[in-house]
Amino acid sequence: MFGAFAAWAISLGPLPLAQTRQVSTTIVDRNGKLLRAYAMADGRWRLRVDARNSVDPGYLKLLLAYEDRRFRSHAGVDPLALGRAAFQLLTRGHIVSGGSTITMQLARLLEPRRERSVHAKLRQMVRALEIERQLTKDQILDLYLTLAPYGGNLEGIRAASIAYLGKEPKRLSLAESALLVALPQSPETRRLDRHPDAARAARNRVLDRMVEEHLLSQEDAAQAKAQPVPGLRKQMPILAPHSADAAMATVKDTDVIRLTLDASLQKVLEALARDRAQALGPNISVGILAVDNASGEVLARVGSPDYFDDRRAGQVDMTRAVRSPGSTLKPFIYGLAFEDGFVHPESLIDDRPIRFGSYAPENFDMTFQGTVPVRKALQLSLNVPAIALLDRVGASRLTSRLRQAGTNLVLPKDEAPGLAMGLGGVGVTLQDLVQLYCGLARLGNTTPLREIASEDARDSLRLMDQVAAWQVGNVLIGSPPPENAPHNRIAFKTGTSYGYRDAWSIGFDGRMTIGVWVGRPDGAPVPGLVGRAVAAPILFDAFARTGKLPVALPKPPKGTLVASNGKLPLPLRRFRPVGELVRTGGEQAPHIQFPLNGSRIEIASSGGAQASAMPVRVAGGVLPLTMLVNGVSVGEIDGRRQRLVDPPGPGFARLTVIDATGAADTVVIRIQ
After folding, report:
1. Beta partners for 519?
2. How far apart are CA 626 and CA 660, in angstroms?
3. Which of 54, 100, 327, 505 is catalytic?
4. Which terminus of the chain is more exposed, N or C, with fewer CB under 10 A?
5. 199 near 150, Cβ under 8 Å?
6. What confidence score (pLDDT) does residue 244 get?
7. How far are the Cα atoms of 66, 68, 116, 177, 205 from residue 185, in angstroms, in the given order?
């Protein structure tokens, strides 16, 4: 007899544990909070459970008391429970309590069968013994809570708690715990969305039995019974849907994908985008991206105000869409101008009608301000000064530097970089713009944005030198904020693309950078869609909703020239556009003959002594010639047009020579 039973048990084959690895893929935030879950291929919701860390202890205590009070001590089968169930059936004529252990119920879930017979019960008992040999008690409980049926396509306590109660099962009331204990006994006949009365009666029976067994007081049970039973099924969480979709397409062969997002910040920014979009009109979309400056980790990404709104093309991620940036690239034109040393934030610059070949830029309000400080020109986003500086910096150099910093600029087909890119004549994404502005906050180096926590951090990329980046941030923090917004707290820039198609505002403090885009996804114009009026208020509201006060920007780096216009070196007091640098008497603009641009200079030093001086030779230019090292004046060059300069130390150094008319030449070298 025993041999036949053993042969039959062996014939059952190995435990089908492989199917337990098939669960819904879940997307979680940086703290493990659920952002979004994806149903399995067959449409079932099955979320993996870690009972010790993610399920209410009160629920676990109630579950074991009701289903398997000796779970921690038996070997898979509880003879006492089987005997008690049989005795109750004989004496009362109906089933009062079942004899199946949690492990036996797990065995039935692993091999579901319709029949209820002695043969089926024996099979469950054999399988339960096998399960107990292969798994720990905690693993068995986790599997049961992952696979237990709760009606429809819901499996496991997490899916049931989220769908029926609208929350994770980590904190449950007594009434909620009793309900979730009762449902798996007859999941289809007790479905809350179809049979709430049956579910309520089953819950109350669980409570009554706990009172009978003196595990619960009458008062507590009565209060729990008074709680209503939900009659509707709630939608599964769908925070950060665009980020979740991108992660699903990128990460394979894992059921939990952790993102760098902060669920709390994501939720408030999604609500902000939804409220503002509804106020702006039915076809308007809003994109918001928040990034941690230090790490480059994405803290929140709102690709659209409503993922399911077809009128707003809700499933299109507008933080990754290529659009015209308007004036948002201007800070980087100024930054390179500061880096080259031919202009300073307190320099004067003309805002007057000017023509660059056939191109004659005009300001947004069709007026001109005359002569203004460079600081004011950037803060007011004046077009003519920006284009004059870009003409001096070079559109190709700006393009090269932005691409070097990790930005993908999209130019019209077969077109080379030109002056129009300073006013939006190029395509860029909100994501790339935020990365660039984050580089300003990081004092001149960008870091590729990271959103999937498992991805390795990548090396930083050079945007501009520290002094120039600080100067840009120092200018932008003084930009006039929207009405009722705090002054001098957020360094920000706005932009409006041609035809009122895109409104932008990107800003940063010492902790994070946030970018906002507003417009129609189809690119249609929206009269009155201006960055300062539409996007900037959203930006400042986004910073306010982080719940933290703005963090101060870094202090000026060593060597930063902080001075009023009257105390600047003479060539820096006023910017002269390229056309004004042409000589009438055949004079040549200054040119640094040594060292050559891009060269490496080895400076000898020994015994800790100071490195030897570095010779600089210049040709052309109108005397006096002023020498600047990393934007700081080190004096004039003698009549022989040469000078010995003390090297600033190992690393990159920028040498600039400016003559009496303001003409300049710059080289960048590496000292080693």
Report:
1. 285, 502
2. 8
3. 327
4. N
5. no
6. 97
7. 11, 13, 14, 14, 12
Query: 3-state class of 628 per DSSP?
Result: strand
Omega before residue 345 within 30° of 0, cis: no
Of the candidates 175, 173, 150, the one whose C-alpha atom is nearest the C-alpha of residue 229 is: 175
Given a cut of 50, whether residue 584 has pLDDT beyond it is no
- Residue 188 designated active-site: no
Both structure tokens of 467: 């002094």
Provide the pairing of β-strand 502-508 with 512-519: antiparallel
Of 54, 67, 347, 633, the active-site residue reads 67
Task: Return the H-helix or E-strand segment holding 616.
Answer: strand 614-619
Cα separation of 208 and 210, whole Å? Answer: 5
CA atoms within 13 A on the CB side of 12: 23
Q: 141-150 burial, b if ≥16 CB within 10 A, otherwise e?
A: bbbbbbbbbb
| One-letter identity of residue 2 | F
pLDDT band at residue 606 using 50, 70 and 90 as cut-offs: very low
Q: Which two tokens stand for residue 176?
A: 């909620």
CA dihedral of residues 149, 154, 158, 161 (deg, nearest 10): -100
- Which helix or strand (DSSP H or E) is residue 292 part of? strand 285-292
Residues near 133 by beta carbon (within 8 Å), at least 6 away in sequence: none
C-alpha–C-alpha distance, residues 269 and 267, integer Å: 6
| Residue given tokens 């979309």 in the structure block | 285
CA distance 268 to 514: 14
* Interstrand relation of 651-658 and 664-671 (parallel, antiparallel or unpaired): antiparallel
pLDDT at 608: 46
Phi/psi for 264 (5° steps) reads -65, -45
For residues 528-533, give the mean pLDDT: 94
What is the pLDDT, as a whole number, of residue 90? 55
Min mean pLDDT across 14-23, 431-440, 555-564 is at 14-23
**Euclidean distance between CA atoms 172 and 164, whole angstroms:** 12
- Cβ(554)–Cβ(470) under 8 Å? yes
**Is residue 417 predicted with pLDDT exceeding 50?**
yes
Q: How far apart are CA 531 and CA 505, in angstroms?
A: 6
Candidates 174, 176, 202; CA nearest to 187 is 202
Torsion of CA 363, 571, 390, 593, to 10 degrees: 170
Residue 350: φ, ψ to 5°: -85, 135
213 in catalytic set = no
Mean pLDDT for 314-320 is 97
Q: What is the C-alpha end-to-end distance of the chain, expressed in Å? A: 88
Taking residue 655's Cβ as centre, other Cβ atoms within 10 Å add up to 23
CB 666 within 8 A of CB 340: yes
Shortest CA distance to 317 belongs to which of 327, 307, 332?
A: 307
Residue 367: per-residue pLDDT: 85
Average pLDDT over residues 510-528: 96
Of the listed ranges 65-69, 89-93, 178-182, 418-422, the least confidently predicted one is 89-93
- Give the Cα separation of 84 and 105 in Å (integer): 17
Give me 411's structure tokens.
Answer: 């130019």
Q: Kindly report, residue by residue over 489-516, the tens digit of the pLDDT.
A: 999 999 999 999 999 999 999 999 999 9
Per DSSP, the residues of 210-277 read HHHTTSS-HHHHHHHHTSPPP-SPPPPPBSSHHHHHHHHHH--S-SEEEBS--HHHHHHHHHHHHHHH
| Tokens 């015994």 -> residue | 607
DSSP states along 168-224: -TTS--HHHHHHHHHGGGSTTTT-TTT-HHHHHHHHHHHHHHHHHTTSS-HHHHHHH
